[in-house]
Every structure is written in structure tokens, then in C-alpha cells.
Amino acid sequence: MAITNTDTKVVTGTVRLSYTHVFTPQSIDGGDEKYSTAILIPKSDKVTLQKIKAAVDAAKEQGKSKWGGKIPANAKTPLRDGDEERPDDEAYAGHFFLNASSKNKPGVAKKVGRTPEGKPKFAEITDTTEVYSGCYAKVSLNFYPFDAKGNRGVAAGLNNIVKVQDGDFLGGRSSLNDDFSDTEFEDDLGEEDYLN
Questions:
Q1: How much is the pLDDT for 194?
Q2: Residue 184's pLDDT is what?
Q3: C-alpha to C-alpha distances, 8 to 5, 43, 76, nearest whole angstrom
Q4: CA-to-CA distance for 8 and 149, rounded, in angstroms?
Q5: Which of 16, 105, 162, 177 is deepest in the core (most CB within 10 A)?
Q6: DSSP-assigned letters across all residues of the chain
Q7: pLDDT above 90 covers what percent of the chain?
Q8: Is 148 a residue whose pLDDT tops 90?
Q9: In angstroms, what CA-CA distances link 2 with 9, 67, 145?
Q10: What is the pLDDT of residue 191?
Q11: d(CA 143, CA 154)
Q12: Which has the higher per-residue pLDDT, 196 or 106?
């Protein structure tokens, strides 16, 4: 049976984004510039985790042609356990995570209603502050086999992102409203009074 792109594609449930670079590509460790994000998947989201496992298995089958006809015993897979690999990071507790990237800019949008046919309707997000490390989204991924310098396995390609809700910033960044919500401002001072 031939493996198709639909076999290796996954649309996640609600996940949290971390190390998010979806508006401007970044170079990691001197490599090619890519758009990327880490995706934190709650361990309770069994549906998304099953879809990822099936897509990774399909990508391994695709990889046989690159890997000499068989799946390497030590083939790398993208899904990792946050409790084991990031024990000191509370955002990763209770989650699996993977890193997804693309040389092409992903579609980044939010749902703004429904079409007359009942399908979701989306609006592109262009404000680079609206999608950030810590917000929640649904993400379209494509899993593919790789063979690079002796490393063989499956990686996650980043297709599209739909933001579903805000969340606390990850990485120590705070919001403008949080920083200044209790600060008093002299609203009645004119510009001349302020400068004197």
C-alpha cells in the first residue's frame, strides 16, 4: 500500500506553543533559517497522540526507500516526554512535545466565525505579538523521513497554525497590561507640565 501525504499529516487538538518563530525565520545552531515552534501536547490528549504515532509510523514506511529498504532500529522520532527531558520546566510537565519547522512561512490565523455552509472561517494574523510562546493553538503538521549525515528518523514539518486562546508568556516575558495595571499615571498632566 502506498503511503500518501494524508497518512503523514496531523491536525492537533489544542496545544501550547513554545520557542515560537512563525513570523520571521531563525537559524538554529548555524543551520538554515526556518520558521519553527515547539508544540506542547497534553498527555491527556490521547487522540492527538494516536494521530501523531500513526503519522510517524507512516513516515517510517516512506523512509524505507531512503534507508536501504528497512527502518533503522535507532530511527529518531520527534515526540518526546516533557516530564523526562525538561523536568525543571513546569510548562512541559504533563506534556509530550515536538519541534516543528518549515522553510516556508506557515499560515497563521484565528477562527472568526463560520461560512454559510457551516465550515470554519479564518482571518490571517499579521500582528507578530499575537502568536507567541505560551499561547494555545491547533497546528497542522506533516511528518517526513530524513537521512542526514548518518542521522535517520522522522521529523515534523510545520504547515499552518490557528490560534485558539491566549496563555501566560513562556520564557519570563510579561504582558504590558500585567506590568502596568497597578501603576498610577497622571492623566491630567499636559505635555508642557510634564516637561517642566
A1: 46
A2: 78
A3: 5, 21, 16
A4: 23
A5: 16
A6: ----HHHHEEE-SSEEEEEEEEEEEEESTT--EEEEEEEEEETT-HHHHHHHHHHHHHHHHHHTTTTTTS--TT-B-S-EEHHHH-TT-GGGTTEEEEEEEESSPPEEEEEEEE-TTS-EEEEE---TTSS-TT-EEEEEEEEEEEEETTEEEEEEEEEEEEEEE--PPSSS---HHHHHTT----TT--HHHHH-
A7: 77
A8: no
A9: 15, 17, 15
A10: 52
A11: 6
A12: 106
- pLDDT for 149: 83
- Which residue do the cell numbers 455552509 mark? 117
Q: Rounded CA gap, 35 and 158, in Å?
A: 8
The mean pLDDT of 97-112, rounded to a whole number, is: 97
Grid cell listed for 92: 512541559
In total, the chain counts a number of residues equal to: 196
Q: Which of 92, 91, 100, 80 is nearest to 20 (CA)?
A: 100
User: Which of 171, 172, 108 has the alpha carbon at shortest distance from 138?
Assistant: 108
Q: In this structure, are residues 56 and 154 in contact, taking their beta carbons and an 8 Å threshold? A: yes
* pLDDT on residue 178: 63
Place of cell 517526513: 144
Distance CA 147, CA 6 (A): 22
Taking 90 as the threshold, does the pLDDT of residue 145 lie above it?
yes
* Four-way CATH pick for 5-171: 2.60.120.1440, 2.60.120.260, 2.40.50.140, 3.40.50.2000: 2.40.50.140
